[in-house]
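From: lab user (bench 3)
To: helpdesk
Subject: output format question, protein + nicotinamide-adenine-dinucleotide

Hello, I'm new to running complex predictions and I'm not sure whether the block I got back is the full result or only part of it. Here's what I submitted:
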Amino acid sequence: MIKLQQKSIVVTGGASGIGAAICTAAHKEGATVGIVDINGDAAQELCTALGRRAHFAVGDVESEGSIDAALEKLSTSMPAFNGCVTSAGIMPTREPIEEMPLENFKRVLENHINGTFVTCKLVGRRMLATGGGSIVTMSSVLALRPGPVLGYGAGKAAIKNLTQAMAVQWSKKNIRVNTICPGWVDTPFIRKQEAAGRDLSPILNMTPMGRMALPSEIANIALFLLSDLSSAMTGSVTVADCGITLAGGYLPYGELPE
Ligand SMILES: NC(=O)c1ccc[n+]([C@@H]2O[C@H](COP(=O)([O-])OP(=O)(O)OC[C@H]3O[C@@H](n4cnc5c(N)ncnc54)[C@H](O)[C@@H]3O)[C@@H](O)[C@H]2O)c1
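Helpdesk reply: Thanks, we reran it on our side. This is the complete output you should expect:
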């Protein structure tokens, strides 16, 4: 159990999937949580379900003004933020580069990289004024092992680098910044792709553990990084992928090649 009683944690994308699991787990461990999401109905629903010590604000991470206003709203009930997770994100598109409109590329890239930049900038500014904190960003194994997704993979690689650049900038200012690289996680994000006709069995076949991670398993890592137990960690990259990045080349054989 990770004690978070003194923590006041804002989570973008907190209304669904990994972000919702983080809000739920942090709240259970005693934290005050602020859910920021573009989906106000879902944010309000989770907030009501959590009850006391939960707050929400509608915010679009692609707009600096929108996130500033959301943080101001939360500030009335959360005087200082000492934890933040940037989990807002949109699905990758799967288009061949020679046919991909620039707009589609930019849309996914900018949601991820601009959203992380804007949130960290505005939360970090407030943390600097109130004594510091811990920020956790959400990258992906695609930052380490590129796949065929263009804007999404480039965005996740940029998030990893941005996280480490912020960690260096804030290293003497009591703000730690770490990133998580999940593999496949069983969230609405993935299930929407399945509903749109995607066969998920190749994912399981390429994963040594033969399953996706659960949102609660990613939340456990986020809680550790938000807590004082990880006080020596900044700029770290934590891979939580059920073994995907280890598997290269061998899985097609089954287990040991003949
Ligand atoms: N699910 C996976 O397999 C997986 C793997 C690696 C990384 N990730 C990353 O983890 C994060 C969370 O993914 P998830 O699976 O929980 O997705 P999800 O779709 O369940 O949740 C994402 C949330 O972000 C919100 N959001 C989207 N755009 C927003 C915006 N502009 N402003 C504010 N909120 C916005 C959505 O409303 C939603 O509530 C994403 O950054 C995703 O890229 C997911």
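A quick orientation on your result: Helices lie at 17-28, 40-50, 64-75, 102-130, 150-169, 188-195, 201-205, 215-226. Let us know if anything else is unclear.
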